[in-house]
Amino acid sequence: MPIGILHNPLSGRNKRQPLLFQAVYARYPEVRHAEVTTPADIMKALETFAHNQVNLVVVNGGDGTIQATVDALFTYRPFPEMPLLAVIPAGTANMIAGDVGLGKFEEATLEHLLSWIQSSVSAIAFVNRSILRLRFSSNQRPIHGMFFGAGAIYHGTQMGRETKQTIGRLGEWGAGLILAKFLLALATGSRKGLQPVTVGVSTGESTTEHHEYLVLLVTTLERLFLGMKPFWGSTSGPLRFTSLKVPYRYLWRVLPALLRGKSHPLATIDHGYVSENFSEIRLVLNSGFVLDGEVHLPSQPEEPIILELAGELSFVRLSSGAK
To answer: According to CATH, where is 2.60.200 located in the chain?
Structure first.
């Protein structure tokens, strides 16, 4: 199986351990390896991989590197057929890798993948995930990813970037500390970093309804940081939509269940809680949003955005016997 590796030396963990994988790269000279730091680098490397009939792309980088890779694959279609992906958690938060990642951030993970690919594909497991496409009303081209967030998620991501040398560099534990800070603010009545955002939401044939949201997220992942699964909707659809509207009630009574993906009799729409699965979601935003850890601002006030299914990708993971 021809393999190509995208290595981002500026991703959080790679930056702190720049030589970690170099010995593995040297032991497998037949495996194509490209250093990438920008979306343009990634696109160029993918074109080279496609020309050389690579069908497994290893992404050694963080959520931003994975998003740029997925975006290039679906926007420019450099491969005649979508390659398999394998993700090494080399970033800071590594939320995508926490769901579909190859394994731990260590030399042995990549070593096992490359050695087992050559000897026994039975040691490899595969998981499929849907890919999210964001389409804009402006001339901006669509972008692709796996996690969209607004409200407190946007503010929390900004806080992580501002504290990247302290809390931000703690990865998913840092995200957990930021979440704890927000929950403490809720408990004490503070609104610092918790300003609700007004968002217009519509799905299917429904008309757009504007509400104030403290949290709004759409994802195709099955797990978020620290193993949280805040999805308890029973409807079918590839896009998981979860929101907390203002005003909300009984937060402390329902939160432990909701974060584990369990419904609660008090977590109703009337009390501010929504979790459903859709094929398309239409939003009207007047605030920033996050896509796979990267902060974006709307190109115009009250910008309509359509979130829809772009397709699927298959991710490679090591089975328990190969680790």
So the answer is: 147-291
